[in-house]
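User: Fold this; tokens only.

Assistant: Input:
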Amino acid sequence: MEPSDLYKEAKLHYHQLVPDREDGLILLALYQKYGDHEFSEDQIIDVITRVFVDLGRENKRMAYERNNQIIHRLQEFFLWRDRNRKLYRFKKYGEEFCRRINKRLSESYSPAKIKRILNYLLDSLQKTAYNPGENFNTWVEDHFSARNNELAEQIEILDQQVGESVKEFKVKFKTPHVNVIRLIDTVSKGLEIIKTHAAELTNAFQTTYDIDEHIQGILEGSDAFPYLENLRKVQLYNEQVRAHLEQISIRIDKIKPQIREFIFEFNQRELDRKTDRFIHFLLDNATQRSGTQKRLELPANVPPFATGSSDAAARFYIISSRELLPKPAVKPTVRQVDEVKKKEMIADNQKLLDRKKRITFWTDHAMSLIRSEGQLNFSLLFFLILKQEQGNLIIPVRTAQRVVKLCRDRSLFQISIRSEPETNVEFNHLTLWKMDIRRIN
């Protein structure tokens, strides 16, 4: 059976699966009022009318035909109709559609809840090592997959709050007679609260590092082959979660300087406007005093003020000579290089580089065998690598990870793992499952 083409299938039913704005709002209003209970056609029409009145699009002359078309459309995927009793109720798809929107709009972030979930995941992962019949794949299926969406939603909620704060600022700023300074202060405080929430959530997600550490231990073990796909899946998820939290903090850090710059420019423009209005007021309302000298007399409600005075008291500022003289030169700090530590670091880096080269060599060798011979018994190659590398287990393990990653395209390669032990007399302490990789022509 060939897999279905999502794009082609969705193109045929897109408008029924994803309702337009009016139909979507009508569905949400019905769900809010009736939930999983039944309702009549008159009640649907009443909701339709209220929605169109609220949107300012009510047309009584076309209402009858419009209502029939909407009810007919909603019956495609969202509503059941009992023809005998002439009652309606939500289909599972329609109920799930409304429920998820309601959850997304009403959900609030909770770092304490996230911390509890992550602690539970870590604790259940650690227990798989002691419980017979449980392994990493069962942990992913029973625990991780059931909760990773809930964890991701918390981050999306924070990102949504940032967007809503900026949108609120733009909308309210256009409102006439708004107190701009107070509005900016409110938005700045809101962003600061969101950043605090992001920091709390980042702290809650620190447990993902403990999960990664446990995963690394599984990868370095001899029985990691059946779990490689799920191990990588969990690692990528943890990396993405931490990266998204970092992006939210960076986004807030970029917005706040722009708000401060806007405050400065607004204050400057406001001062210029007030100064300009004051000068025009003086020019429009000042009068010319009669006499030999032409003088302007200020309006009666403007008190006289002196623009200059020869009797003004002199002001003296005391400046210490230290502030006038150039600062003395500061001697540069001479740093001592720890040659022993330097050599150790160079040696360690060289070991890592050599190990990386050997892993690359064996990966290329394995892929060459797969392409030339069409298949490869990787279990035998694993012991060969281990022997050639003087028992360094890291190199064959990392090679296995790379080869599996390169062969994950199921249209080009087939990986089969059988529960048959593969051993080697030189490494009695190590037992592998048989793993074959075959190239699909």
